C-alpha cells in the first residue's frame, strides 16, 4: 500500500516534496558595477510557486541590485506560470507556456516632467503645493499622507493567461491541442488512499446551474472508497488518513435566490450528491457560495481551517468552468493574503492547466491546491465551440420561460434538445425552461420536428452555429421519461440536461415525455430544484431573440425576389423574362 502511494504524478511530486535547502540554492549572478549605474531592475516580481526552485538569497544591503540583462536564456521547465500552472518557456510562441520577457528599462524611465514654477498662473496654488484635489485640507491631528511611489506588484504570466485576463480568449487556439491532460484520480488518488500522511480535504465544487452535469462523480467515489477502507483502522486506533469531503455549490447568484430557501437548497444538494456518488459518501458539510458576490466565502474558509488543522492538504476539484480559480481567489482575499490573487479567471473552460499551490491561506504548514478542471464528456458544453459556449453559459440570474402545452406538441432549446409531450392523463401541463436567455426557444407541433431540423437547426435555432455543425455534434437519440405530479401551482419534477439546463414539469396527473438530444449527453430526472414558474407564458413559435431575427433576415434575402428599379426595368426590356417559378427555384437554398 505504501509503495503504491509513493507513485505520484511528477508534477505533484515536485509540489509535495520538501523544498531545496539553502545550501543547494543556485548561485547568484555576478555583479557588474558599471552596468548597475546605467540600469535599474525591472519592477516585475516573480511570485514563487511551489514547483519552482527557491529564490536566491538577496545580496547584502551595501551592494547595489543585480542588473537584468537583455539577452537572458530561455526559462527552464521548473518556471511555472502562477496563473495556470503550465511550464513557461520563451523560445517558441506556438507552444504552450510561451511568454515575452519584459524589456529592460533605463534608470530614468520614470523621470517626472519639468517642475512647476511660480510663473505658471493657470495652475492653482493647491496643486503647486502637492495636493491632488483643491480644497482638500488634512484634518487637525491627522498624520501627513505618504507619497504613493510604490507601484503595484506585477506577476509574470504566460501569454495564454495574459490574453485570457485582458481579452477573454485564447491567443493561440492551435496550441490548445498540445496542452497536457490531467487525471485527478490517477495523480492524487494514491495519496488519498494512503493511510499515512497529513490530513486530506477535498472540496467537491459543483455549478448551481448545472449540478448533476458538473458534479465530480469519480472523485467523490474515490473519497468514499478511501474513507470506507480506513474507517475500521481508525476505529481501532491505528494510523488512518481519512480523507474528508466538502460539497461546495458555486455560482449561487445564478439561481433565482428570492424564491429559494437556503435550507431547501442545502438538503437538495446533499441528496443529489449522494445520488451521484453513492450512499457511502460522507460529506463533512455543504456550503452554498457565490465568489462574485462574496456569499458564504468566510464560512467556507473557517470550516476548511477547522477540518484541515495546521498541516492539512486541501484539493479543490471540479469540472471545467465551475469556478475553482475564482473561488480560491475570493478565499485568498478573504483570508487577508498580501497582494492581489494570481490565479487566472476567465469564462473559458480549462483555464487552469496544472496543480497550483495557493500560498498564505491556510498558514505556514497548510497547503491549498487548485487543480485543472475535469473534462466531462457527458456535458453538452464539451462538444461546443468557443462561440457556441458563449450562448450556452449562464452569466446572470436565471429567469423562467414557461409554456402550457398539450399532447403532440414539442419545445426546442436551440438546436440541442427537444422535449415531446407524447401522452397525458390531463388536458395540458406546464413546462418551464431554465437555460441561458441567449439560447432561442421554439414551441410547435411534434409532426413538424423533422422540418425544424432540416430548415432551422444552425440558423434560427442556435447553437449549433451553422447547419454543417449539426452532424458534427453526433447522432440524435431519444430518451423516455414518465413523470407525475400532484399540484398545478409548482414544478414537481426536473428533466436535467448536462451542460445546458433543465425542464421544470408542473402537472396534476401523469405524463409520458420524450427527450431528444445528441448521443452521449447525460439526461436524468430529479426532484425539482426551483418550484416557481413564469407569471406570463410564452407563445407558440420562436421566442424573441437577436439570433432568430438575424437568421430570418438572412433567409429572406436569400429566398426573396430581388427588387428592381421600375424606371431601369422599363428601359431595359430587351432581355429574356424569367418566370416567377424559375426564379424562385434558382434562388432556393439547399438546407
UniProtKB/TrEMBL annotation:
| Source species, domain of life | Eukaryota
**Residues in domain G?**
314-385
Q: Write out the biased-composition intervals (Low complexity).
A: 13-23
Q: Which CDD domains match?
A: YqeH (cd01855)
Where is each NOA1/YqeH-like C-terminal domain found? 431-529
Entry-linked Gene3D superfamilies? P-loop containing nucleotide triphosphate hydrolases
Name the record gives this protein: G domain-containing protein
Native species of this protein?
A: Urochloa decumbens
